Amino acid sequence: MAVYTEVPPEELEAFLTCYGLGPALTFKGIAEGVENSNFLLETPQGRYILTLYEKRVARDDLPFFLGLMEHLASRGIACPTPLHAEDGAILHELAGRPAAMVTFLEGLWPRRIHPFHCQELGTHLARLHLAGGDFPLSRPNNLSVTGWRPLYEACRSRADEVVPGLALELGNELAFLEAHWPQDLPAGVIHADLFPDNVFFREEKLTGLIDFYFACNDFYAYDLAICLNAWCFEPDGAFNATKARLLLAAYRNVRPFSGAELDALPLLARGASLRFHLTRLYDWLNHPEGAFVQPKDPREYLDKLRFHQQVRGPGAYGLD
Ligand SMILES: Nc1ncnc2c1ncn2[C@@H]1O[C@H](COP(=O)(O)OP(=O)(O)OP(=O)(O)O)[C@@H](O)[C@H]1O
Ligand SMILES: N[C@@H](CCO)C(=O)O
After folding, report:
1. Atom of ligand 1 nearest to the CA of 105
2. CATH number 3.30.200.20 given to 9-103
3. So which residues are the signal peptide here (predicted)?
């Protein structure tokens, strides 16, 4: 349950007054999500999401995340728009935490992925990349190749508890990726965590993209690699090339990618697998006993990594 911080009613009322909103008609904690405390708030003026930023989100990064959502929304991307309070600022403090309010998006995230989801996702991901092209702020991706070794070192001594031989296998993969990671593919603002639980649909159409708290500047094709992993494997672990083809083809219709981007996809997909494997492994080995939030299984991403290691070219992803 991701409500780490309780909000006293009198503080909420004062907070809403700063936005010219209120009173709260309903105010409910949202159980989903693991990073921040989220609340659904209904006011006479409409529905909003209130987020209190917990410690894993660096305060210095909040202007980038919130500014990006505002920028993208103003260019027609279906993402939450932060509200400005009457003092003009987006970010305030509530219950001792940095806090912001964003618009509520309709739709539900898909529990079971169908090919049309991947097609819609490809179109909207490409639009997001284009719309972010003139966003003036930037933020390095601290979970790209240079960020993986510290995570690996933090997990290394206990990795074999999770899968026998894992420390050696990950060490070899990391060395390979460090030696071969591309230097100069087309880059810009990427979402970097566009998993199904961050994408809303209604009647087979994409209605919203949320959770921009890993957004950063990196290769556009790396965002596609993250999506290939998160959307194109079946629950039994099988790769679905039809879904991959639909995702990539829909993306390419909006933002054509270069031959270099296409050729780099297998390597980027290995990197994307290692990134989510390592963060999950770290959380798996370090979560407090009896914590509310159950860590995600890192082995899912080890299997994806092993799949991409066998891929010999982008044709495996259904494209020519
Ligand atoms: N703008 C929005 N409109 C409607 N629902 C939203 C919105 N933002 C968040 N939610 C709801 O809150 C839930 C948690 O949001 P989110 O995924 O951003 O949480 P988090 O804890 O910040 O991130 P993470 O998924 O990385 O743990 C979502 O699954 C969704 O149900
Ligand atoms: N999407 C991440 C969780 C952090 O948002 C994962 O599945 O490991």
Report:
1. 3
2. yes
3. none
Q: What is the pLDDT of residues 54-101, one digit of tens each?
A: 877 889 999 999 999 999 999 999 999 999 999 999 999 999 999 999
Pairing of strands 92-94, 97-103: antiparallel
| C-alpha 221 to ligand 1 mean position (Å) | 24
Q: How far apart are CA 98 and CA 51, in angstroms?
A: 8
Q: Which CATH architecture has domain 115-317?
A: Alpha-Beta Complex (3.90)
Q: Which residues contact 266 (CB under 8 A, 6 or more apart)?
A: 308, 311, 312, 313, 314, 316
Kindly report the pTM of this predicted structure.
0.95
**Ligand showing the shortest atom-to-Cα distance for residue 304:** 2
Which residue's alpha carbon is nearest to atom 2 within ligand 1?
A: 104
- Report ipTM (2 d.p.): 0.91
Give tens-digit pLDDT for 39-49: 999 999 999 99
